[in-house]
Amino acid sequence: MRKRASFVVFGLGALAIGSVFGACARRSAAHPPVVTPAPPSGAIPAPPSSASVLRVEIDQRVETVPLEDYVAGCVAAELGSIPLDPPAAARARDTQAILCRSYARASVGRHRDEGFDLCSTTHCQVYRPAPSTVIGRLSREAAARTASQILMVDGRAVLPVYHADCGGHTSTPEDVWGGPPSSFLVSMRDDACARRRAWRLDVTLAELGDVLAADPRTAVAGPLRSVEIERRDAAGRAAWVRLVGRQTRVVRGADVRTAVQRRLGPMSLRSTLFTIVQHGGGVTFEGRGNGHGVGLCQAGMIVRAGGGDAPAEILAHYFPGSTIASR
């Protein structure tokens, strides 16, 4: 199968594929942008965990990792180097450390049936042991400064989902994944994420049909004849997509994105904030942002850290009603 994928960055010049976002902050090339799928719970509050040691699957082996070492490794993998002055970069890393720790504490046992707590991919969080480099040292310092701090809402630990780049507006979990609404995961304009990356994916209709047919959530009988957006959410994301073959199906935009990424790679359909143009035997997706668009936007987080916002302020902005507590 062949595909042609390209992207344009307005006003910035081309950045490496490892970029977290167009405005600033690069992730190590070994760690692609976060594309975290919906948690099984649909991103609703999760009970606190007292786990101080995690069983993490890394490259098909299970390692026992102290929680704070895991946090440092996640911060290094998720953010890499940050082109801000040291105090601002430290605020961004501290925010990410609280996020990573909160996510881990709320997700302990997610892979229990497979014999470990968390995987090391974007299905959970990207993790590798913090390297013996400046980035590794700075990430370990962020974990130490925020040791034991997690995100709380109404006295409960929560699962704070996040993504690389919202493209200027976040979405609710019910719009993206379905399930019940959440008081702390809301749809909001994000002016801090102002420099938006534009990307483009060109595929033939036949290729797209083959890709979608490989996933039962998006398969249609017969050759795919057309694809169009059925409904957008308040952020402008394609919440539902209409697929027409011998039958017509209306499926979640997030499922279309997952199916395409599974076959064409994480840099293909980067978000559901896209338009669709069908021309002859081809389909062009043009969009902004990177990731599911729910919760915290890492692009906006780093811009806010650069503007002087403290971790608690940044987290309270993206997760209304939240506070930080030591547990």
What secondary-structure arrangement, pairings included, does this model have?
Blueprint: E1 4-9, E2 53-58, E3 61-66, H1 67-79, H2 86-107, E4 118-119, H3 134-145, E5 149-153, E6 156-157, E7 162-163, H4 173-176, E8 197-204, H5 205-213, E9 226-232, E10 238-244, E11 248-252, H6 253-264, E12 274-279, E13 282-288, E14 296-297, H7 298-306, H8 311-318, E15 322-326
Parallel strand pairs: 2-4, 7-14
Antiparallel strand pairs: 1-8, 2-3, 5-6, 5-15, 8-13, 9-10, 10-11, 12-13
The pLDDT mean sits at 85
Number of strands: 15
Strand content: 15-25%
Order of helices and strands: EEEHHEHEEEHEHEEEHEEEHHE
> Could you list the spans in which at least 5 consecutive residues all have pLDDT below 50?
1-50
Structural class: alpha+beta
Largest beta-sheet details: 4 strands, antiparallel
The whole-angstrom Rg is 19 Å
The proportion of residues forming helix, as a percent range, comes to 25-40%
Measure the end-to-end span: 50 Å
